[in-house]
Specification:
It is a single chain. The chain starts with a helix and ends with a helix. The protein is about 80% helix and about 0% strand. By secondary structure, the chain is an all-alpha fold. It has one domain: Farnesyl Diphosphate Synthase (Orthogonal Bundle), CATH 1.10.600.10. It has a two-stranded antiparallel ribbon with strand order 1-2. α2 packs across α5 and α7 runs antiparallel to α8.
């Protein structure tokens, strides 16, 4: 990651300048919250995907920095709203907006970020880029609602699982890559190729996130958290298809409990490991990464391509 940030140092500075200007407000409370948002921003993986995709396809420009800012505005807005929905008090090790300023303020802050993203694009006539990213936000909402619907019935198949994560996670990374490519040459074919690349990376990224639930190391969220929240992830779906009826029935019964005990969560994790659910998910994750590289190899070798591969490797081998 240090090499990537060194390579993108000037570009990230210009992106941050555009982003910081975009979130400015004359309302003192909002300006205070926006400064907190800027201070607690994450690793900025999505803006980096935008910029590197732009460099891969041409010479980046102000439109590229606006696309990177838009993706960060939209992503941050969805995270603020997610924390309200999930009643979460922490985000990236910091207190969440709703924890510090309550739910009503947090919802309005999320709305503000969405509107600023719209205005940033509309004000500069970046209509196609806005369309690419707005489609991603629509799909993210659909993915969350599909997951909520299926969580009640506990009937998620692998096919439905992949549709959920394609919408929930992969759509935003896909749109980041597509928007970055489009920003430099308005070439729809190259933009579509990069969207396909980003979608495969995004699916692998989410599988990696699902695997953290079964890990022993400190990965930024409690082990078994997805199980507690009744989220059916790939290792578990595979296990339910492999185990006997008695084991499957026991797991489903545990899932239905509102408050799961530590020994029950341990039983599910141990059962998933025993039935090679972790190994299977890792194999699928690796397959998506290989497919993403096959798309990337349609482009000539360059520093941007090299660093895109490094960014993918970092995303998949991250510790949290």
């Amino acid at each position: 990651m240090d090499e990537i940030k060194k390579y993108l140092k000037k570009d990230l500075q210009l992106f941050e300048k555009t982003f910081n200007k975009a979130v400015e407000s004359n309302v003192s409370l909002l300006d205070k919250i926006m400064k907190y948002v800027v201070k607690t921003k994450g690793k900025q993986l999505r803006p980096m995907f935008v910029i590197l995709s732009g460099k891969l396809c041409g010479e980046i420009n102000e439109k590229t920095y606006r696309a990177a800012s838009l993706i960060e505005l939209l992503h941050t807005a969805t995270l603020v709203h997610d924390d309200v929905v999930d009643d979460s008090n922490k985000r990236r090790g910091f207190f969440s907006i709703n924890a510090l300023w309550k739910n009503k303020i947090a919802v309005l802050v999320g709305d503000y970020l969405l509107s600023k993203g719209l205005l940033l694009s509309l004000g500069n006539k970046d209509f196609r880029i806005l369309e690419i990213l707005a489609t991603a936000v629509k799909e993210m909402s659909e993915g969350e609602l599909l997951q909520a619907e299926k969580a009640r019935k506990l009937d998620i198949t692998e096919e439905i699982y992949f549709e959920i994560i394609r919408c929930k996670t992969a759509s935003l990374i896909s749109s980041a890559c597509g928007a970055g490519a489009y920003s430099v040459n308005e070439n729809e074919d190259e933009s579509n190729l990069m969207r396909q690349f980003g979608e495969k990376v995004g699916i692998a990224f989410q599988i990696k996130d699902d695997l953290f639930d079964y890990g022993k190391e400190d990965v930024g969220k409690p082990t078994g958290n997805d199980i507690k929240e009744k989220k059916m992830t790939l290792p578990l779906i595979y296990t339910l298809n492999q185990c006997d009826k008695q084991t499957k029935s026991k797991i489903i019964n545990i899932f239905k409990h509102a408050n799961k005990k530590k020994d029950e969560i341990k039983y599910i994790i141990d059962t998933v490991i025993e039935h090679n659910g972790i190994v299977y998910a890792q194999q699928i994750m690796d397959r998506y990464i290989e497919e993403s590289y096959a798309i990337l190899n349609k482009f000539p070798d360059s520093d941007a391509k090299k660093h895109l591969v490094e960014l993918v490797e970092y995303s998949i081998h991250r510790k949290y």
